[in-house]
Amino acid sequence: MTEAERDAYHAEKMRKKKAARDKILATKTEEKGLLIVHTGKGKGKSTAAFGMVFRALGNGMRVGVVQFVKGVWDTGERTVLDKFPDQVTINAMGEGFTWDVADRQRDLAAARNAWDQAKALIEDPAYDMVLLDELNICLRYDYLPLDEVVDTLRNKPEGKHVIVTGRNAKDELIEIADLVTEMTEIKHHFRAGVKAQKGIEF
């Protein structure tokens, strides 16, 4: 096959692909707020969620963030988001990982306070998107009633996007979600003795 023939073949193949794609896209007419879940053992769940937050900010949307585990730590994403006080509200409600705190009652109280703030943001029409970072950890350890969380998320305002992150997402949450992504770990530098690093983990 000559280069000209290969070019012509490629052009025809792409034309057919575009026609098929356009046909599929023509059937996608619904617009709604999505419930999005990032779970799995691999790295990148919160990172991907914050990527959506930055994308929303770039589109002039208002975003609320509730961090269920992370406390008021200095992180790169907080530093950037603090530059958009009119568009984003950050609530770092956690007290650290449960194995650091080692006090179940404090964990329960922190989870309840964070969830109450989350519900307020979800119900507030001023916010277009709400990120519930590491909510799945609280659900895994039964720090919050699963039925209450699922009911709230199932009945969220129609146009509101809600993102939930954390390992071990409950089946009940996955069932009601519109988009679920599982991060799968193939290889991780931590296992080779490399510590958490600025710009990568925080």
Automatic annotation (TrEMBL):
Q: Out of the domains of life, which is the source?
A: Bacteria
Q: Please provide, alphabetically and separated by semicolons, the GO molecular function terms listed in this UniProt record.
A: ATP binding; corrinoid adenosyltransferase activity
Q: Name one GO cellular component term.
A: cytoplasm
Main localization category = cytoplasm
- CDD domains for the chain: CobA_ACA
The pathway noted for it is: Cofactor biosynthesis; adenosylcobalamin biosynthesis; adenosylcobalamin from cob(II)yrinate a,c-diamide: step 2/7
- Protein's UniProt name: Corrinoid adenosyltransferase
* A Pfam family matched in the record: CobA_CobO_BtuR
State its location(s). Cytoplasm
Substrates-to-products reaction catalysed: 2 cob(II)yrinate a,c diamide + reduced [electron-transfer flavoprotein] + 2 ATP = 2 adenosylcob(III)yrinate a,c-diamide + 2 triphosphate + oxidized [electron-transfer flavoprotein] + 3 H(+); 2 cob(II)alamin + reduced [electron-transfer flavoprotein] + 2 ATP = 2 adenosylcob(III)alamin + 2 triphosphate + oxidized [electron-transfer flavoprotein] + 3 H(+)
The EC designation for this entry is 2.5.1.17
Give the main EC class. Answer: transferase
Return the NCBIfam families for the record.
cobA, PRK05986.1
One GO biological process term: cobalamin biosynthetic process
Keyword annotations:
ATP-binding, Cobalamin biosynthesis, Cytoplasm, Nucleotide-binding, Porphyrin biosynthesis, Transferase
- What job does the chain carry out? Required for both de novo synthesis of the corrin ring for the assimilation of exogenous corrinoids. Participates in the adenosylation of a variety of incomplete and complete corrinoids.
Q: What family does the entry list?
A: Belongs to the Cob(I)alamin adenosyltransferase family.
Tell me yes or no: is ATP-binding among this UniProt entry's keywords. Answer: yes
